[in-house]
Amino acid sequence: MIVRDRIAAFQRHMKRVAAKRKAPQVSPGDSGPSASAESARVSVVIPVFNAMPFLAEMLDSLQTQELDPRLFEVIAVDDGSTDASGKLLDDYASKNSHFRVIHQSNSGWPGKPRNVGTAASVAPYVFFCDADDRLGPETLRRMVDYAFENDVDVLVPKLVGANGRRVEASLFKVTEADVDRRKILGTLSLQKMIRRELLESHGIKFHEDKVRLEDGMVMARCYLLANRVSVLADYDYYFIRTRDDGSNISSERTVPEGYTWSVGEIARIIKENEPDSGLGDLMILDLYRRKCLRIYDPARFGRLGRSIRSRWVQAHADLVERFVPRGLESELSPISRQRSQLVRMRDLAGLERLADSEHLLRAVPRSASVSVGRRSAVLNFRMEPDGSFEELSLLLRSRGGGNEDRLPLEPDPQGSGGYLGVVPEALLGDYTGKIVDCFVEATANGFTGPPQRVLVNGATALPVQGDGIKGYATVHGNLSLDLR
Length: 484
Description:
The chain is of the alpha/beta class and 484 residues long. It has three domains: 25-248, Spore Coat Polysaccharide Biosynthesis Protein SpsA, Chain A; 256-359, no CATH class; 362-482, Immunoglobulins (Immunoglobulin-like). The chain has helices at residues 2-21, 55-63, 85-95, 111-119, 139-150, 181-184, 196-201, 214-225, 256-273, 277-291, 298-302, 306-323, 334-344, 348-361, 425-428; strands at residues 42-48, 72-79, 99-104, 125-128, 134-135, 154-157, 159-162, 193-195, 229-232, 238-241, 364-373, 376-384, 391-398, 404-408, 410-411, 419-423, 435-444, 447-448, 452-453, 455-456, 470-473, 479-482. A hairpin with a 2-residue loop joins strand 11 and strand 12 (376-384).
């Protein structure tokens, strides 16, 4: 293993030497190789199109990096900007010898400028950034040190949302030298540092026409072909922004057929490159859930015209037939599973009914009263919002797994608008010595929602220990019964 790694490292070194010996081809509009081109350990590649006023913040964050400028270069590719972005890039390059600017006519998509920037680099690593984001001052130093010390192929730095941007924070809880492949496919955005040889040896390039999720296609191949993918979570490395001026390329109207084709391309890449077919199916299911089934969230689905809804359903149904085996839907949450089943049947009317029902399916149960005695318990609930439920069920689950029981909830006969659940002595006996967590599951319009944890109102009087049963509120305000 050590000998093989040393041979591979020597081969990479010789490729870099050969690349550096080639006479650089400098085209009009190209400031030429930076002063750090041959010594850089990483090239920061930035596609730029009308990125003012945010561009200055990114360039400032690069200008003030703690890493020695001889060890990194910035390659900014101006994709025919019509604002002051091109001039600003030239100004920064004139003051920073490790900055390179390449001006080109507008291609209309980030793929071509990213390919141009990557081709202009000879550094061992390429770090893809966006022009409207920024880096922490220690970012490049920390990333370069970690990548070289740990022989990393793809390095995933901790992202921090800015200007309302949401990130998958669970991915960045701890640093991991070898991150789980299914887990890392949860982040397909391009803000990663990638070994350039990985891109070159596998011919990995970006689509240069207007293709949605082209960055996800590149990242999926990189993750699955890499020997080591690592997550760095010990620092706020990359601040990723949501622009509110509507000028992001990604803010353009999404075409259902084109977007779904792109999801299918990522699914195909996973299927062809993941050696474990079972794991590959789960990766594709995750992708389908994130990129397709979220279209049917009620608020989002409700904003769409009926003809666009129909196009989404037809496109998704074709994807499901190719990549999502019917039995795999059991891995989805209840509402996502029902959405997928309706998509598979191309049932637009059913999806509309489900969307209209979700406020009831996700209704929050709140405990109005709890009484215990003679080894039985009577629980009174209110549902928020209340509505025309076909069925409400009380679910009892022993903490840590084991017993689970379902009981019907009935309207309170006193007409309080609440619902009663009676847990008999015989059933409670099965939970002796355990803590029981309480959930309510709602059915409405033929659909069943996810089990919802019962909340305890501040005004709810919980009984003291009585006859071996104690009702109490957890630290999160949820109702549980203690039978220990």
